[in-house]
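Batch job 17 of 40 flagged for manual review because the log was empty.
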Amino acid sequence: MLTRDFLQKADCRTAFGAIEETLLLTPEQRLASLECTLSRRPDNSPVWIFGYGSLMWNPVFESEEIRPATLQGWHRAFCLRLTAGRGTQHQPGRMLALSEGGQTSGLAFRLPEAKLREELELLWKREMLTGCYLPTWCELALENGTIVTALVFVMNRQHPLFEEDTRHQVVAPLIASASGPLGTNAQYLFALDNELKSHGMHDDCIGDLVNTVRQWLQQHNRPGALGGEATA
């Protein structure tokens, strides 16, 4: 289970499963990435984080405000080969990222300025284990029409774990089969689908993929994987 306490104490080399040593960022590299990102912070405005996956239902960090929001120019895609957390190197799954094009509905979290560094260091430990994401400042439209600038973790297409092929017939068997220390890959997908529905948000790609994964699990007599909660 991914909790604040777990994340604070986690040894990044082992807590999420076996991660190839050459892929892991050192604590110094993570800190440098955070410093570089903050140096591009626009005009000392409030720092918002855009959650489009597990940050929506299990952000772990503290926030002062949460608003539904829409990001233009990016869409959800299971384009990250998952070898830890909810997958292994032997049985990799697929993790969610953002690819260019389209739009994405999610949640915007405004971080408390007084605890900004503490919360961001925790977030970097969660999202930037291997540098598979690019922390990017993007404009978000909140539900009331207000435009804010937020940090968005988009796919680093130059990363060794990037996967170009996101067709459902390719991705669904991987998600249905993979599991790791944090649970099954399918539980993550189903939790995302439930979270989107709870906010009245719709994503055709996710809904169709959920149906494909459920059909795969049923066809392969693995009904036990259909349920369960995902906390990360």
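Reviewer: the log was empty due to a logging misconfiguration, but the result itself is present. The first strand starts at residue 48 and ends at 51. Unflagging and moving on to job 18.
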